[in-house]
Amino acid sequence: MKESAATIYKLLGVLAVIGLLILFPHIFPKPFPQHIMILLLMYVVLGQAWNILGGYSGQLSLGNQIFLTLGAYTSTMFLVKLGVSPWLGILPGIVISSLAALAIGTICFNLKGHYFAIATIGLSEIIFIIFLNWEFVNSSYGFQIRFAGNSLLWMTWSHKLPYYYLILLLALLVVAFVWKMDRSTLGIYLRAIKEDEVRVKSLGIDTRKYKLLAFVISAAITTIAGTFYAQYVMYIDPDSLLNLDFALLIIILPLVGGMGTVLGPILGACLLVPLAEYLRTLLGGGGRGVHLILYGLIIMAIAVSQPRGLIGIIQEVQRRRFRRNSVAGAEEESDHEVA
Questions:
Q1: pLDDT band at 212, cuts 50/70/90?
Q2: Which residue of 6, 213, 231, 247 has the fewest CB atoms within a 10 Å radius of its CB?
């Protein structure tokens, strides 16, 4: 009975949050708060995508911005060069990113721990140099996306409201997918691989297959976010996509919030994205890099207090509250017995 009541309360809580998110742009109609929320929701998508690979299977990739770049460039090039709607341009982007993830995973999954992370950094730098000098992708100049009026077909609008609801829908779908995956066989296998891959192999489970599947899913979701980002900012180039900010923040969100959990990347995004954006606005050009220092301080503080991140802190608070209530209940029963 208590479990069913708790489930109902959780469901009502989720519905209340979704309702508030739907109402947010009407409560805060100014562009800047909407811009912050658009970025926050986009980073929730990116954080969840990385979490599937890094948080669940333990493959700490530092190159997920590769797939963000492939998604942004593929849809933009189809749009600019062939006049194809970005909605259709997403599809070849997903195919290219999935093939790239399969190739990278096949080669690099032989590496363990930090060696895999170093390899993905190296690949990211290689992609950056290639895009910086490749005339087919307009080299370092990148692409300017032409404003096609307020159009759902071309995914361009003169105001932020449609972008907000589009990324909100994507974020809700991705979170729902990860929640479902967390409770599926895939989620169980990925967590087991993270804990002890050798033991899982000894049970006859093809760990490489499941890690590759996680990598492809992560790449596909990141690619979709890349297409959205390109349409939102309406300009892409190698410097804006393959930069340190994207690489770090995509990883830091699940790390701070709680790796291998559905709620972790959401908590991380809610804490760090508004903080970083407001710091940039407050300090202007003189505050360049301050948010990175702040990230480092937050990571150190959380790592010292609770290695499991914000999720771990919340769970610890809940455990302490439960213990206090249990002690209080026991004392009350004892007093009644004495009376």
A1: very high
A2: 6
**Residue 42 CA, distance from chain mean position:** 7
Rounded average pLDDT over 171-184: 96
In three-state secondary structure terms, 159 is coil
In a domain, 165, yes or no: yes
Backbone angles phi, psi at 145, to 5 degrees: -90, 125
Report pLDDT digits (tens) over 284-338.
Answer: 655 566 767 777 787 777 777 767 788 888 877 778 777 776 666 655 666 555 5
Determine whether 15 is exposed, middle or buried from the number of CB atoms within 10 Å of its CB (0-12, 13-18, 19+).
Answer: exposed
Residue 178 is assigned to a structural domain of this protein? yes
Q: What are phi and psi of 182, to 5 degrees?
A: -55, -30
Which residue in 152, 171, 165, 166 sits closest to 22, CA to CA? Answer: 165
**Sole residue written with tokens 């170093």:** 118
Cβ atoms 232, 38 nearer than 8 A: yes
- Interval 74-120: pLDDT, tens: 999 999 999 999 999 999 999 999 999 999 999 988 887 778 888 99
Phi and psi, residue 236, nearest 5°: -135, 145
CA 84 to the chain's CA centroid = 27
Residue 10 lies in a domain: no
Highest mean pLDDT among 131-135, 248-252, 321-325: 131-135
Distance CA 317, CA 334 (A): 26
CB-based contact 160:229 (threshold 8 Å): no
Percent of residues in the chain assigned helix, strand, coil, to nearest 5: 80, 0, 20
Which domain does 299 fall in, by range?
Answer: 31-305
Going by C-alpha positions, the residue among 180, 13, 212 that lies closest to residue 100 is 212
Running DSSP on this structure, what letter comes out for residue 56?
I
191: CATH: 1.10.3470
Domain presence at residue 202: yes
The pLDDT value recorded for residue 235 is 94
Structurally, how many domains does the chain consist of?
Answer: 1
